[in-house]
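Record type: monomer structure entry
Structure origin: computed from sequence
Chain ID: A
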Amino acid sequence: MGARNPAMILARLSLLVMLCTSSSPIDAAEPSTCFGSTSDGYLQNGWELPLNGSNFTAYSATARLMGRVYVHSTVHDILLAAYAAMELSVPGKVFVYGETGFVDGGHFKPHKTHRNGLSVDFMVPVVDNDGNSMALPTNLLNKWGYDLEFDGNGRLGELSIDAEAMAEHIYQLHIAATASGHEIWRVIFDPALQPLLKHTLRWEYLEQNVQFSRKRSWVRHDEHYHVDFEVPCKAVD
């Protein structure tokens, strides 16, 4: 029997812990069922993401109260398993998740996707000029972070995109997804900024295992990266 991948073992253990101890208020409910596609579908029994954890926070407490942070139960557990793994792999790093979707999915303005619980936005992790990890500033004035604009070098004032932390996050999401028997369908991130990831420790793995967008989307996706997960869904009624 070949040697086991330590990251895979950690992901499996983290996923098991999250399944047993998740803080979601509807953990006792039935698992989610998704219908259709991310751009034409809906969700049953969506699970709400926690407001925060030891190394992550929601992009907006207000938006969470408005019901904009629900995902498929499988995606819920993948996300929390990845955050748990990163407490060990990149201790001290801070992460912010963005929009996900409604409890029952469906049309989710202004997004063209996010309809069946399998789409998640993550705000880019950033560091200041001294290299300190910080939560991306999100508030009403900058549309909860979605109105921020990074330059071609991934900089915004005194903040810079933390490419190593971002690559680690996508890596741990993929490890957690495959440990649960699922996959990442695609990652949408500004193609002009993707070269930042090519100098990270995880790039070789990501290049071989994760599909990144090649063309610029209808919105730039520079202040956040959009991840679609592959989970079996039923046909739309």
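Annotation 1: The chain has a mean pLDDT of 88.
Annotation 2: The domain at 34-230 is CATH 3.30.1380.10 (Muramoyl-pentapeptide Carboxypeptidase; domain 2).
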